[in-house]
Design brief:
mainly alpha
């Protein structure tokens, strides 16, 4: 009995689905960041909290390593995410 080989097109469809999920997750994260900004504003807390970011990046790097993903890639992605999060929060502060 032959097993059906998956095609390049099918694999690309799977990648497209994963990309869509990533973008939806980023959108959800951004909504949460806006809520965080509101709390920080009410409590007069700074947008940039270096210790929180250091811990977050350390945890993401460890997870990447556990999942055999290039930790430099993950660190780069999350640094961009954090930069954007600060921009979103700063906008809420205005």
């Amino acid at each position: 009995m032959k097993t059906k080989q998956i095609t390049l097109g099918e694999l690309r469809e799977e990648i497209d689905l994963v990309d869509t999920l990533l973008i939806r997750c980023l959108a959800k994260r951004q909504e949460i960041v806006k809520e965080v900004a509101e709390i920080k504003k009410k409590e007069n807390l700074p947008v940039f909290q270096p210790e929180r970011e250091r811990i977050l990046l350390e945890k993401r790097k460890k997870l990447a390593s556990l999942l055999n993903i290039d930790s430099n890639l993950v660190m780069s992605i999350f640094q961009n995410i954090l930069d954007n999060s600060r921009k979103v929060q700063e906008t809420k502060w205005r």
